[in-house]
Amino acid sequence: MSTIEEFIEARIDIEEATARGTVQASLSWQNFTMDGELRDSDNAGTIMMCVADEDRQHIAHHDPARVLRQCTALRAILRVHRPDGDRECVGCTRNDRAGEPSFVPIGECVELRTLAAIWPDHPDFQAEWVA
Protein backbone atom coordinates (compact mmCIF):
# COMPACT_ATOMS: atom_id res chain seq x y z
CA MET A 1 0.00 0.00 0.00
CA SER A 2 1.40 3.40 -0.95
CA THR A 3 1.41 6.59 1.06
CA ILE A 4 -0.68 9.54 -0.05
CA GLU A 5 2.36 11.41 -1.36
CA GLU A 6 3.62 8.33 -3.26
CA PHE A 7 0.16 7.86 -4.76
CA ILE A 8 0.05 11.47 -5.97
CA GLU A 9 3.61 11.40 -7.31
CA ALA A 10 2.89 8.19 -9.26
CA ARG A 11 -0.22 9.73 -10.83
CA ILE A 12 1.73 12.84 -11.82
CA ASP A 13 4.49 10.67 -13.34
CA ILE A 14 1.93 8.83 -15.50
CA GLU A 15 0.24 12.03 -16.66
CA GLU A 16 3.60 13.58 -17.51
CA ALA A 17 4.77 10.50 -19.44
CA THR A 18 1.49 10.39 -21.35
CA ALA A 19 1.76 14.07 -22.29
CA ARG A 20 5.38 13.68 -23.38
CA GLY A 21 4.47 10.56 -25.36
CA THR A 22 2.35 12.38 -27.92
CA VAL A 23 3.62 12.17 -31.48
CA GLN A 24 2.52 15.59 -32.72
CA ALA A 25 5.15 18.19 -33.60
CA SER A 26 3.76 20.62 -31.03
CA LEU A 27 2.52 19.95 -27.51
CA SER A 28 0.00 22.81 -27.88
CA TRP A 29 -3.20 22.01 -29.70
CA GLN A 30 -5.88 24.18 -31.29
CA ASN A 31 -9.50 23.72 -32.27
CA PHE A 32 -10.08 24.53 -35.95
CA THR A 33 -13.79 25.23 -35.87
CA MET A 34 -14.36 25.67 -39.59
CA ASP A 35 -13.03 22.28 -40.66
CA GLY A 36 -13.85 20.19 -37.57
CA GLU A 37 -10.21 19.37 -36.87
CA LEU A 38 -8.07 19.44 -33.81
CA ARG A 39 -4.51 20.32 -34.88
CA ASP A 40 -1.23 20.97 -33.21
CA SER A 41 -0.28 24.64 -32.94
CA ASP A 42 2.50 24.27 -35.52
CA ASN A 43 -0.22 23.12 -37.94
CA ALA A 44 1.98 20.13 -38.68
CA GLY A 45 -0.90 17.69 -38.67
CA THR A 46 -4.42 16.84 -37.73
CA ILE A 47 -4.72 15.23 -34.34
CA MET A 48 -8.31 14.20 -34.84
CA MET A 49 -11.55 14.98 -36.62
CA CYS A 50 -14.49 15.62 -34.35
CA VAL A 51 -17.96 16.84 -35.28
CA ALA A 52 -18.81 18.43 -31.93
CA ASP A 53 -17.08 21.77 -31.46
CA GLU A 54 -17.50 21.50 -27.66
CA ASP A 55 -15.57 18.22 -27.64
CA ARG A 56 -12.74 19.71 -29.70
CA GLN A 57 -12.59 22.70 -27.36
CA HIS A 58 -12.35 20.42 -24.34
CA ILE A 59 -9.60 18.28 -25.86
CA ALA A 60 -7.62 21.32 -27.03
CA HIS A 61 -7.93 22.85 -23.56
CA HIS A 62 -6.26 19.77 -22.07
CA ASP A 63 -3.42 19.59 -24.58
CA PRO A 64 -0.06 18.07 -23.57
CA ALA A 65 1.51 21.48 -22.89
CA ARG A 66 -1.18 22.27 -20.31
CA VAL A 67 -0.83 18.83 -18.72
CA LEU A 68 2.92 19.37 -18.34
CA ARG A 69 2.37 22.78 -16.72
CA GLN A 70 -0.15 21.16 -14.38
CA CYS A 71 2.35 18.42 -13.46
CA THR A 72 4.93 21.10 -12.62
CA ALA A 73 2.42 22.93 -10.42
CA LEU A 74 1.38 19.74 -8.62
CA ARG A 75 5.01 18.83 -7.95
CA ALA A 76 5.58 22.31 -6.50
CA ILE A 77 2.78 21.62 -4.01
CA LEU A 78 4.37 18.25 -3.15
CA ARG A 79 7.72 19.96 -2.46
CA VAL A 80 6.04 22.16 0.16
CA HIS A 81 3.67 19.55 1.60
CA ARG A 82 6.01 16.65 2.25
CA PRO A 83 6.59 14.44 5.27
CA ASP A 84 9.38 14.96 7.73
CA GLY A 85 11.02 12.08 9.63
CA ASP A 86 8.01 11.85 11.94
CA ARG A 87 5.53 11.67 9.00
CA GLU A 88 4.31 15.19 9.72
CA CYS A 89 3.71 17.68 6.91
CA VAL A 90 6.43 20.31 6.85
CA GLY A 91 4.11 22.65 4.94
CA CYS A 92 1.25 22.56 7.46
CA THR A 93 1.25 23.88 10.98
CA ARG A 94 -1.48 24.51 13.49
CA ASN A 95 -1.52 25.81 17.02
CA ASP A 96 -1.96 23.31 19.81
CA ARG A 97 -3.99 24.02 22.97
CA ALA A 98 -1.13 26.01 24.47
CA GLY A 99 -0.92 28.18 21.37
CA GLU A 100 2.33 26.58 20.25
CA PRO A 101 2.72 25.64 16.57
CA SER A 102 2.64 21.94 15.79
CA PHE A 103 2.86 20.00 12.57
CA VAL A 104 -0.05 18.19 10.97
CA PRO A 105 0.30 14.43 10.33
CA ILE A 106 0.94 13.95 6.62
CA GLY A 107 -2.26 11.94 6.20
CA GLU A 108 -4.26 14.94 7.47
CA CYS A 109 -2.64 17.48 5.12
CA VAL A 110 -5.57 19.19 3.40
CA GLU A 111 -3.52 20.00 0.32
CA LEU A 112 -2.44 16.39 -0.23
CA ARG A 113 -5.93 15.08 0.48
CA THR A 114 -7.31 17.54 -2.07
CA LEU A 115 -4.78 16.45 -4.69
CA ALA A 116 -5.46 12.76 -4.07
CA ALA A 117 -9.17 13.42 -4.68
CA ILE A 118 -8.36 14.01 -8.38
CA TRP A 119 -7.97 10.25 -8.89
CA PRO A 120 -10.73 8.52 -6.85
CA ASP A 121 -11.27 5.88 -9.54
CA HIS A 122 -7.66 4.63 -9.45
CA PRO A 123 -7.29 1.16 -7.85
CA ASP A 124 -4.59 2.40 -5.44
CA PHE A 125 -6.76 5.26 -4.18
CA GLN A 126 -7.65 5.02 -0.49
CA ALA A 127 -11.02 6.49 0.48
CA GLU A 128 -9.76 7.57 3.91
CA TRP A 129 -7.51 10.13 2.18
CA VAL A 130 -10.53 12.29 1.41
CA ALA A 131 -12.97 11.26 4.15
Helix content: 25-40%
Q: How much is the radius of gyration in Å?
A: 20 Å
Write the H/E string, N to C: HEEEHHEEH
Number of helices: 4
Quaternary class? single chain
The strand order across the widest sheet is 1-2-3
Structural class: alpha+beta
The low-confidence runs, each spanning 5 or more residues with pLDDT under 50, are none
Write down the overall mean pLDDT: 84
Q: Characterize the main sheet.
A: 3 strands, antiparallel
Strand content: 15-25%
Shape: elongated
The N- to C-terminal Cα distance equals: 18 Å
Task: Report the strand count.
Answer: 5
Structural notes for this entry:
This protein is α+β, with helices and mostly antiparallel strands. It has a domain at 4-28 and 63-124. It contains four helices and five strands. The protein has helices spanning 4-20, 53-61, 64-80, 110-116, and strands spanning 29-32, 37-40, 46-49, 88-95, 101-105. The longest helix has 17 residues, at 4-20. The model has no long low-confidence stretch (mean pLDDT 84).
Describe the secondary-structure layout.
Elements: H1 4-20, E1 29-32, E2 37-40, E3 46-49, H2 53-61, H3 64-80, E4 88-95, E5 101-105, H4 110-116
Antiparallel strand pairs: 1-2, 2-3, 4-5
Can you give keywords for this protein?
131 residues; three-stranded antiparallel sheet; two-stranded antiparallel sheet; 19% strand; elongated
